[in-house]
């Protein structure tokens, strides 16, 4: 018999706040965490807005010397993991370490470190490249450092599936517990992509908005949307088998019921027409969790504010849910955080769980000129009460990666 899996702790660093409580409160109120681009030289890019993490100090969570050996994306992961463990009231010790695993995804890893060290190589030669260059850069190091610093000795892994990395990682960690290979998983995603090369690459691909107004730049499902806003951050969830959580009297936020993951087999960057791959991901998650479609009340959409994603995701939801699609609340919190790439699904999983806990959907901000092709209830510009036992979180990534998680209110 497969184990039931529950969420017992959450932690996040993102453009809305440096902890879960503030982030969720601001999301519910429709506050936008996107601002002027300050990390990079603004004048050299056609983009001047970003979802930056502010007032974050790595040394508040780790030794200053050790922090210098980590990329910014790892700083975010470690901080979020510590917060999630504290929220869960979970201590890792010699008795349980072998049964606690880590699975944290990242889409591009230490891009900032790569750029910095490449400049060092060009300017001063190969001998001046840091011996920590490779372990700072590789995407799995967020998971590795969290394992090292917390003492978790179970399975240690990293899923790299572009913008679906965080959601895939949570789903993969869910399956580890479900099949009995661990009792606890520290899981989620981390990303720090506001770098010169990442910004240049996404700009050249015409994926980013050219809006000058940070408060309205991200406008999912709006007819005027023209691209996403680059963001950064991390989200970490503590997943436990229900038996383990009950044995230690843990507070349970929600239960994770199902996971679906598919490939488009279509295009490097564009989604499959009409969201064909997304349809199958949602269908698989529902089937995996033995969920009736009419039981679903809320979807935290991928909702990137790009022309094709929002149109095709809407189409996919309507294909999966038929008439029930119009009874759902579907919102995109990227309207407030921007797109956090490999960490976006993890942060949005936290928001999805909180939506179930509070029975309140965060709004889709800046939805002022509805696209006729996007005709669902997106909770435009204002949070919306809901009556939902089950909620989905969708994430889709370059390469045709699609991932869906299904969460349920905890019922004992």
UniProtKB/TrEMBL annotation:
Top enzyme class, one word, equals: transferase
Is Nucleus tagged as a keyword? no
User: CDD domains attached here?
Assistant: KAS_I_II (cd00834)
Cellular component aspect of the GO annotation: cytosol
Q: Which Pfam family is one of this chain's hits?
A: ketoacyl-synt
Sorted alphabetically, the Gene Ontology BP terms of this entry are: fatty acid biosynthetic process
Instruction: Give the catalysed reaction(s), semicolon-separated.
Output: (9Z)-hexadecenoyl-[ACP] + malonyl-[ACP] + H(+) = 3-oxo-(11Z)-octadecenoyl-[ACP] + holo-[ACP] + CO2; a fatty acyl-[ACP] + malonyl-[ACP] + H(+) = a 3-oxoacyl-[ACP] + holo-[ACP] + CO2
Name the Enzyme Commission number(s) assigned to this protein: 2.3.1.179
Question: Which segments constitute the Ketosynthase family 3 (KS3) domain?
Answer: 2-409
* Keyword terms of this UniProt record: Acyltransferase, Fatty acid biosynthesis, Fatty acid metabolism, Lipid biosynthesis, Lipid metabolism, Transferase
Q: In which pathway does it act?
A: Lipid metabolism; fatty acid biosynthesis
What family, per the record?
A: Belongs to the thiolase-like superfamily. Beta-ketoacyl-ACP synthases family.
Entry function? Involved in the type II fatty acid elongation cycle. Catalyzes the elongation of a wide range of acyl-ACP by the addition of two carbons from malonyl-ACP to an acyl acceptor. Can efficiently catalyze the conversion of palmitoleoyl-ACP (cis-hexadec-9-enoyl-ACP) to cis-vaccenoyl-ACP (cis-octadec-11-enoyl-ACP), an essential step in the thermal regulation of fatty acid composition.
- What is the recorded name of this protein? 3-oxoacyl-[acyl-carrier-protein] synthase 2
